[in-house]
Amino acid sequence: MKKKALKKIIPFGFAAVLISIGFIACSSDSVTDSDLNEDSEEEIVTELHAAFAAFNPDATTIYLDGSQVVIETTGLPNHETVYWGEGSTLYKEEPDVALTPSIMSSNNNATTIRVEATPNLTGNTVETDFNTIGIAVSGSSIFNDQEGGGPLDQAAASLDWTGAHIGPGVYHYHLEPKAFSDDDDKLVGILLDGVFLYGRKCNATGTYPTDLDASGGHVSTTQYTDGEEEYHYHIINEVYSTTGSYLAFAGPYQGY
User: If 144 and its partner were Cys, which of 25, 73, 128, 169 is the partner (CB 3.0–4.6 Å)?
Assistant: First the structure.
């Protein structure tokens, strides 16, 4: 009897173990499926924003690298300026400009930046710093409202007709770049936080926006968003200091 009872008990216990294993396996599968579903809901960027089509292809190489956009640029603008130097087909005579070195005499024009393809607008604001804070559609750098450790108006005499000059090193814009955005809604460039910068007017309304935040940003459609609204910056429509023009961007960033 004990042997028979044992024979009956062993299959039952083995079946219970199998059922337990099966339940664990099913539970494990359920968790995995859930995780996969959650992962699939995360936005994966597979193509560049349409606005990148406006960037100068002769100066910039732009591509996706995972969740980031890499912008490699020669730093050489595709418009006239006195800073090209005499002999260049893009040289523009500007006798009133207190010249710094020419573009071609500078050996470090090339710049590369990496920005998030989808800017994080939920974090704290970050102040801009010296040197490149963004890349303009021309291929040259965008700087903030400081130069040489002091206010920009101290260097205003060296700015060319489009609000740019050289120093330190690269040719860069401080003011509204009239060569490609002059009191309009055109794309100016992209900043280090991955947010695009536009001219003084809003494409959605055709007028100067009245709802800009401290960084000059707001949410609306643009000519590159196919009817979708997104956060972006504008050059603020206020004359800056003694320059008689409009500051490109001072900050703080909103997309970090």
Answer: 128
Q: Specify whether the CB–CB gap between 85 and 91 falls below 8 A.
A: yes
Residue 54: helix, strand or coil by DSSP?
A: helix
Q: Between these two residues, 168 and 128, which has the higher pLDDT value? A: 128
pLDDT in tens, 43-74: 688 899 999 999 999 999 999 999 999 999 99
Identify whether the C-beta of residue 141 lies closer than 8 Å to the C-beta of residue 172.
yes
**SS3 for 24?**
helix
Does residue 11 have a cis peptide bond before it, meaning omega lies within 30 degrees of 0? no
Whether 5 and 60 share a structural domain: no
> For the chain, how many structural domains are there in total?
2
Angle at 181 between CA 179 and CA 186, to 5 degrees: 140
pTM of the model: 0.83
In whole angstroms, give the CA distance from residue 29 to residue 139: 50
Q: Does 253 reside within a domain?
A: no
Query: Do 88 and 164 have their domain in common?
Result: yes
- Number of other residues whose CB lies within 10 A of the CB of residue 51: 19
| Phi, psi for 173 (deg, rounded to 5) | -100, 135
